[in-house]
């Protein structure tokens, strides 16, 4: 029993629990849509007019699947 | 260590921070976004204060409205008074504002040092935590979102005094607790602070139940022994809440509406109905549409594209990659209740801050009343910084507590360290655009831990903590460099001159404009009129705040009709115009002095006119009507009549009928809300008193 207790009393399980809570509770697609809107700057300069002004983390958008098609169908 | 060596030790890294941020501090890079708004508000406040008036009304925008930012911009904090005091010594408002911002930020990091000292019971480890916060995003983001600093600083000091009072109840800590509560209540909407405290209480009760009873018993015992101190503390809290109370009274009467809250995502009809409904609070849809943490953050933001940080965003969250590395290295360390507390608080706050992306905020919106009254949930992200840093420092302390003596133990630890660093490097490799200092931090960390565990360098704990603290700075220095470089394209001189407002008879037809890049992100006119104290055109739109009847009038008339009429500040009639939302066009405009009306006095709360009419006239001051405006004719209060739907009107007698001996009438319009100007002076004085009580040793 002390052995099992020793194994369980590690941060590892806490980290796992946090990862599970986040993965169960967070609607990642909704976050992605919100981020897409924000990064594309529609709250500031109108619809997609500011791709050159530093608001867009273009690499982020590309690497996270925010494509023109995604924008068309979700944003 | 004495106070002077300690202050020097704290000042040394802070001086380096000042050097890194010199382009911001010297004004080459102007403040942006909400910090720009806060600067405008602070300048407006202190400029008027130095003119002898506590500003309660904004006569220059949207045809006049209450100065609604009065209770949410940290204006009564003793540190903020620096802006006014420095102006008296010839330092302009912008430089004074910079000094206030930086001083307040530093005070916050010093508070964090003391909090960490209470938690770790060690100055050395507290110093490491201090370095972590000093070189986090907190100091960077304040140039675009000062609200984050305004929320965090009193929270940090509150927790310091709470822990210290819990250990050793004494007057000084009690005063500190009250003072930090007063600041939290008056610097911005206190709902973020309240939420974090409730989250802490929940987690603390679950994890440290036995200590809660001890804490409560000590607290009650202290209050029983010092009943007078308790009463004074309670009075301080009540006084600090007065500005919010006045705001609430004005809001409850419905004289002020907030179209900006209700119209951003609504049809015109919905916008009008929700704005005028005066139900208080916001719909869940209005809160959830934007401003959630999920909109502003992704975990990868902590690692990726740190060379592209933009000055056009007000939601920058960043701590050194070393803290994430420590979390990875701590994976097999023993659980401690402190670590569980820090992680639980971080997770709960994150679940709330994520808004519609989790169900937690939705539940709170329907079950906890105050969740209807604030949005911008991403502000909660600022609390992650101290929580992550405390967790990282706690883990580092645990990691350095290992002192392997035999070779196999050393070998195992070094292998484990290299393996975990390798895993972390692999994780970084799969993120995009990792800056060089991130790799350097990982590599140096691996080297230092290996040397430490292998016992190759026999040095004391202080030496190793200093080395690891230096490692915490490596990546932030590069990030700060990129941030300043990216922000340089925003260069623009901010208005800073003292203004004595003068009464303009006619409002301009066109708004001021600026092609500065700074104002591509926010509207120039949002700041300009406050800073310059000049009139905006007579147009309403959908502002954050407007007088109720004025907004209503703007929705029932075309923009041009209203603008053409209301550009004349003073008009007179032979009869009283309608109270309805129609504009009586039979007015005689007063476009300057010498037409029977002269201006005797003008400030933001008051207009005094001298009239010389041949016959009895109805005078209309085209500035918004609310119930707290009063009118006096020759010193006698008269009935203030709502005229043309939204403005202030009064009958003025002809000279023969007048009581005035010289054949003229003195007409005074005065804004006089509950408490008047004095409650704000009282709040400022009370804050100062509690600061002195906190700092006094006995």
Structure description:
The complex is a heterodimer of chains A (75) and B (698). Helix content of chain A is 68%, strand content 0%. Chain A is mostly helical. Chain A has one domain. The longest helix of chain A is centred in the N-terminal third of the chain and has 15 residues, at 11-25. Chain B folds into two domains: 3-253 and 290-401 and 459-488, no CATH class; 568-673, no CATH class. In chain B, 46% of the residues are buried. Chains A and B meet through helix 2, helix 3, helix 4 and helix 5 of A and helix 16 and helix 18 of B.
Estimate percent helicity of chain A.
Answer: 55-70%
Tell me the β content of chain A.
Answer: under 5%
What's the average pLDDT of chain B? Answer: 92
Largest sheet report of chain A: none
Integer tally of domains of chain B: 2
Secondary structure elements and their pairing?
The complex is a heterodimer of chains A (75) and B (698).
Chain A: H1 2-8, H2 11-25, H3 28-39, H4 42-45, H5 58-63, H6 68-74
Chain B: H1 3-20, H2 22-25, H3 33-50, E1 57-58, E2 65-66, H4 82-88, H5 93-120, H6 123-134, H7 138-141, H8 146-167, H9 171-187, H10 191-207, H11 209-225, H12 227-252, E3 256-257, H13 259-262, H14 268-277, H15 284-288, H16 293-296, H17 321-329, H18 337-353, H19 360-367, H20 384-400, H21 407-429, H22 436-454, H23 461-487, H24 525-532, E4 546-547, H25 548-556, H26 559-566, E5 570-573, E6 588-590, E7 597-603, E8 606-611, E9 617-624, E10 629-633, E11 636-638, E12 641-643, E13 647-652, E14 665-671, H27 678-695
Antiparallel strand pairs in B: 1-2, 3-4, 5-6, 5-9, 7-8, 8-14, 9-13, 10-11, 10-14, 12-13
Helix pairs in contact in B: 1-6, 3-24, 4-5, 5-6, 5-8, 6-20, 6-23, 8-9, 9-12, 9-27, 10-11, 10-18, 11-12, 12-27, 17-20, 18-20, 21-22, 22-23
């Amino acid at each position: 029993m002390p052995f099992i207790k020793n194994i369980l009393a590690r941060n590892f399980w806490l980290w796992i629990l946090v990862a599970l809570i986040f993965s169960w509770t967070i609607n990642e697609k909704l976050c992605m849509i919100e981020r897409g809107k924000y990064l594309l700057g529609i709250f500031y300069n109108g619809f997609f007019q500011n791709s050159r002004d530093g608001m867009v983390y273009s690499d982020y958008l590309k690497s996270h699947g925010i494509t023109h098609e995604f924008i068309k169908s979700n944003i | 260590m004495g106070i002077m060596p300690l202050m020097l030790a704290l000042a040394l890294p802070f001086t380096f921070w000042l050097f890194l941020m010199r382009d911001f501090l010297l004004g080459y890079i102007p403040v942006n976004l909400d910090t720009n708004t806060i600067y405008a508000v602070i300048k407006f406040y202190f400029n008027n204060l130095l003119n002898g008036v506590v500003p309660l009304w904004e006569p220059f925008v949207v045809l006049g409205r209450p100065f609604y930012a009065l209770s949410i911009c940290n204006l009564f904090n003793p540190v903020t008074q620096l802006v006014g005091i420095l102006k008296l010594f010839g330092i302009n408002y912008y430089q004074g504002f910079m000094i206030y911002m930086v001083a307040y930020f530093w005070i916050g990091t010093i508070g964090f040092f003391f909090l960490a000292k209470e938690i770790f019971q060690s100055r050395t480890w507290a110093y490491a935590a201090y370095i972590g916060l000093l070189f986090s995003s907190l100091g960077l983001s304040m140039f675009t979102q000062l609200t984050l600093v305004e929320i965090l600083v009193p929270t940090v000091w509150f927790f310091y005094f709470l822990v210290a009072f819990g250990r050793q109840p004494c007057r000084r800590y009690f005063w500190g607790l009250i003072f930090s509560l007063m600041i939290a209540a008056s610097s911005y909407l206190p709902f973020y602070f309240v939420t974090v405290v409730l989250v802490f209480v929940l987690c603390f009760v679950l994890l440290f139940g036995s200590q809660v009873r001890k804490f409560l018993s000590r607290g009650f015992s202290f209050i029983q022994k010092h009943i007078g101190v308790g009463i004074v503390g309670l009075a301080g809290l009540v006084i600090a809440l007065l500005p919010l109370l006045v705001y609430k009274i004005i809001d409850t009467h419905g004289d002020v509406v907030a179209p900006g809250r209700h119209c951003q995502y609504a049809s015109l009809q919905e916008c009008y109905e929700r704005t005028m409904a005066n139900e208080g609070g916001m719909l869940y849809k209005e809160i959830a549409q934007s401003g959630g943490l999920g909109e502003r953050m992704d975990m990868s933001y902590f690692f990726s594209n740190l060379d592209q940080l933009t000055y056009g965003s007000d939601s920058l969250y960043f701590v050194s990659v070393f803290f994430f590395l420590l979390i990875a290295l701590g994976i097999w360390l023993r659980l401690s209740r402190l670590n569980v507390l820090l992680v639980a608080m971080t997770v709960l706050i994150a679940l709330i801050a994520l808004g519609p992306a989790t169900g937690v905020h939705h539940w709170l919106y329907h079950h906890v009343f105050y969740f209807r009254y604030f949005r911008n949930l991403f502000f909660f992200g600022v609390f992650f910084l101290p929580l992550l840093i405390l967790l990282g420092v706690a883990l580092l302390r645990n990691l350095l507590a290992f002192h392997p003596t035999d070779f196999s133990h050393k070998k195992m630890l070094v292998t484990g360290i290299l393996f975990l660093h390798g895993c972390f490097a692999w994780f970084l490799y799969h993120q995009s655009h990792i800056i060089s200092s991130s790799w350097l931090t990982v590599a140096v960390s691996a080297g230092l831990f290996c040397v430490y565990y292998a016992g190759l360098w026999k040095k004391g704990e202080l030496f190793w903590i200093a080395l690891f603290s230096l490692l915490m700075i490596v990546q932030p220095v590069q990030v700060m460099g990129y941030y300043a470089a990216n922000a340089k394209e925003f260069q623009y001189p901010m208005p800073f001159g003292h203004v004595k407002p003068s009464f303009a008879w006619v409002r301009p037809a066109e708004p001021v404009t600026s092609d500065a890049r700074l104002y591509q992100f926010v509207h120039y006119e949002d700041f300009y009129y406050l800073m310059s104290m000049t009139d905006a055109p007579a147009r309403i739109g959908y502002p954050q705040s407007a007088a109720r009847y004025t907004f209503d009038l703007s929705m029932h008339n075309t923009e041009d009709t209203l603008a053409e009429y209301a550009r004349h500040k003073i008009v007179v009639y032979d009869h009283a115009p309608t109270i309805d939302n129609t504009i009586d066009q039979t007015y005689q405009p007063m476009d300057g002095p010498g037409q029977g009306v002269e201006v005797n006095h003008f400030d933001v709360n008051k207009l005094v006119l001298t009239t010389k009419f041949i016959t009895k006239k109805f005078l209309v001051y085209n500035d918004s009507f609310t119930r707290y405006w009063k009118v006096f004719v020759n010193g006698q209060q008269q009935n203030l009549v709502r005229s043309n739907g939204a403005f202030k009107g009064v009958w003025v007698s002809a000279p023969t009928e007048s009581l005035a001996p010289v054949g003229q009438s003195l007409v005074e319009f005065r804004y006089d809300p509950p408490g008047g100007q004095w409650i704000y002076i009282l709040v400022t004085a009370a804050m100062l008193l509690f600061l002195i009580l906190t700092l006094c040793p006995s």
